[in-house]
Every structure is written in C-alpha cells, then in structure tokens.
Amino acid sequence: MVTAKVWVLKKHFEGFPKPSDFEMKQVALANLKDGELLLESVFLSVDPYMRPYSKRDMKEGDVMIGTQVARIVESKNPAFAVGTFVVANRGWRTHFISDGKDLNLLPAGWPESLPKSLALGTVGMPGLTAYVGLFEICKMKPGETVLVNAAAGAVGSVVGQLAKIGGCKVVGCAGSDSKVAYLKNIGFDEAFNYKTVASLDEALRKASPDGYDCFFDNVGGEFASIAINHMKKFGRIAVCGAISQYNDSVPQKGPYIQIPMIFNELSMKGFIVSSWHNHREEGVKALLKWVLEGKLKYHEQVTERFENMPAAFIGMLKGENLGKAVVKV
Ligand SMILES: NC(=O)C1=CN([C@@H]2O[C@H](COP(=O)(O)OP(=O)(O)OC[C@H]3O[C@@H](n4cnc5c(N)ncnc54)[C@H](OP(=O)(O)O)[C@@H]3O)[C@@H](O)[C@H]2O)C=CC1
Ligand SMILES: CCCCCC(=O)/C=C/[C@H]1[C@H](O)CC(=O)[C@@H]1CCCCCCC(=O)O
C-alpha cells in the first residue's frame, strides 16, 4: 500500500498567505482496481490563481488545488504504460490514483532533453494564456506596441517574447533590477522596475511616448489604472490577472476607468484561458516549436521537495520567482 503526502488548506487565508494556513497530512491509497493507475507527482505548479480560487471554491481541510507533471508508477489500464509522464490536475499530492480520464499526455514531439516541468509553464497553461491573450484578446498586429506587467513571470515572460515574434515593440515591468535585466536579455525593448521608478506615469510615457496599442494586464490595481491613460486610440486591454488585489482584505477603490475608455474608444476584455480550449492544441504546438527553435526562452524557479510547497507558493506571491515557479518533489 502507498501512503501519499498531501497539503491541505488548514485555515482560509486572511490577507497574505502564511505557513500556518497549511497542513501536511498522510493519506493511505487503496490497492489499484482494474482500469486504474498509480501516479507519483514529479513537478507541482504553484500559481497565483490558488489564492483567489481558494476563497471562492475551497473549504478548510480541502487538499490545495493545483496541477502536476506525474509519472505512472503502476498500471492496471492497458491504455497507459508504466513510466509515461502526464499532466494532471489533482492538487498538492505526492501520489494519486486515476482511471486515466483526467490525464493529458505531454504534447507530441516533446524531446527527452526538454524539462518536463515546462508542461506546467511556457509550454503549458501559462504559455497558452499568453498566446490566447495576445492573439485572440488583444488581436496584436505587427508594428504595434505591447505593454505587459508581471513581465518576468510565467505568463508575462512569454507575452513579451510572443509580441517580439509577432513583430511588435514590447515594454515590460517587474519588481526587481535583476528581473529587468532578464527582460532586456530575452528581447524586451524597454523594461523598468515598477517598485523603484519615481513615477509609474513617467516611466510608461518614457518607455513609449506615443502610448500603447495593447496592454496585457496581469496585475490590475494601481498600475492598470495609470496604464489605461497611456493607451492609444482603439487600444485593446487583455485583463488576464489582478495579482495586486488577490491578498486584499478590503477591496481597493478607484480611480475609475470610464473616461479614458470613452475618449480613446478602448476595448477591455477579461478571459480565463481554460475557456479557450479550442485553441489549446494549436497554441501548445506553436509554443513548443518556438521553444525548440530557440525563439522562446524560458526560466524556471525550481523549489526542491514537496515539504516546501507552501514556501514556494508564498514566495511566488511575494515575487521571489523568475519565470515559472515549480516544485520538484
Ligand atoms: N486569466 C487566466 O486564464 C490566467 C491568468 N493568470 C494570471 O496571470 C498573472 C500572472 O500569473 P503567473 O505568470 O502564473 O505568475 P508569475 O510567474 O508572474 O508570478 C507572480 C508575479 O506577480 C508579481 N506580483 C506579485 N504581487 C504583485 C503586486 N502587488 N503588484 C505587481 N506585481 C506583483 C511578482 O513579480 P514582481 O517581482 O514583478 O512583482 C510575482 O513574481 C496572475 O495575475 C494570474 O492570476 C495566470 C494564468 C491564467
Ligand atoms: C480574480 C481571479 C483571477 C484569476 C485568474 C487566473 O489566474 C486564472 C487561472 C485559471 C486559468 O485560466 C486556467 C486554470 O486552470 C486557472 C483556474 C484553476 C481553477 C482551479 C479549479 C479548482 C480545481 O482544480 O479543483
């Protein structure tokens, strides 16, 4: 019999998550029935959505939500061979049982040399978010200027590089000087540290005096309220995330966006990438191709050991990650 380790939400987060909000437990797994598989998590993802979705969907004592790359270690299902790697959505667990219906194989053509953890990042849900947000929501066109915040993270770093691949000028901001240096290194035309500039308004104007056609917003709050005043006529805003607001106990107040939206005839659309599943196959294939061609660079912030899941999650929310934050079990 296998005993899985799991992390549960012990106490709903109040403000910023803290280690005592989590509890690690042991769960004995049953023996496999015909048609079932035993899997071990190899890499687990920590993502910003876990903060707002825990409040909306979870109760105390539930296993933390999340996805993993897992390896099949035992199989009583002829469709799945032992040793196969899959992407699953089974939460913060070291081991779990599946009937195979909820598993996704890694994309076709995945070379042995490529880290499998990328299926949780650049060639997974965050990469696809960048792809859908830019091409379908912003409807980015060559020659345009694209702005992205949280630019050195999992989604933002792909947004900037896809914008360059698509023939755009790209401006990004991030929360440390080393992240800004990384952005320049992966091809951003302009980048600044939003925590240290004297004025966000000035920094946005300096980076693109003519304004922005597309704004890929991962952050919301104050940054978005200022950036909206820098949009060009008929600009498009993809509302992807609002991480600056996820830990608020008291909702932030305006400024309000109607006047700049009307004057510049802007379009603003929120989206959830999973609703765009009809673009998944095409998007993942394109992302994998660009990675293999060296046109799409990646960085991962790998935290070792399952025991450090809460620390990796809290660290990501604090901005300690460069690129995609994952945990290697
Ligand atoms: N709509 C959708 O379908 C999806 C939306 N998302 C959203 O995209 C955004 C980015 O996600 P992801 O790429 O996975 O995460 P990241 O890898 O970008 O990690 C989060 C980053 O957010 C930044 N951050 C944290 N707090 C603040 C703050 N108060 N103000 C500004 N920046 C902050 C930090 O970077 P820094 O050092 O720069 O501050 C941190 O590294 C999130 O808002 C997420 O919810 C993600 C996936 C799908
Ligand atoms: C105001 C909240 C904004 C959150 C934006 C965000 O980060 C959304 C992420 C989703 C992404 O589009 C696809 C996903 O998988 C994320 C949502 C995951 C929901 C988990 C549901 C619970 C479960 O897995 O059991």
TrEMBL record:
It is found in: Cytoplasm. Belongs to the NADP-dependent oxidoreductase L4BD family. Pfam families: ADH_N_2, ADH_zinc_N. PANTHER family: PROSTAGLANDIN REDUCTASE, PROSTAGLANDIN REDUCTASE 1. Its EC number is 1.3.1.48, 1.3.1.74. It catalyses: decanal + NADP(+) = (2E)-decenal + NADPH + H(+); 13,14-dihydro-15-oxo-prostaglandin E1 + NADP(+) = 15-oxoprostaglandin E1 + NADPH + H(+); leukotriene B4 + NADP(+) = 12-oxo-leukotriene B4 + NADPH + H(+); 6-trans-leukotriene B4 + NADP(+) = 12-oxo-(5S)-hydroxy-(6E,8E,10E,14Z)-eicosatetraenoate + NADPH + H(+). GO terms for cellular component: cytoplasm. GO terms for biological process: prostaglandin metabolic process. GO terms for molecular function: 15-oxoprostaglandin 13-reductase [NAD(P)+] activity; 2-alkenal reductase [NAD(P)H] activity. Monomer or homodimer. Keywords: Acetylation, Cytoplasm, Fatty acid metabolism, Hydroxylation, Lipid metabolism, NADP, Oxidoreductase, Phosphoprotein, Prostaglandin metabolism. It comes from the Eukaryota. SMART domains: PKS_ER (SM00829). SUPFAM superfamilies: GroES-like (SSF50129), NAD(P)-binding Rossmann-fold domains (SSF51735). This is Prostaglandin reductase 1. Residues 15-327 form the Enoyl reductase (ER) domain. CDD domains: leukotriene_B4_DH_like.
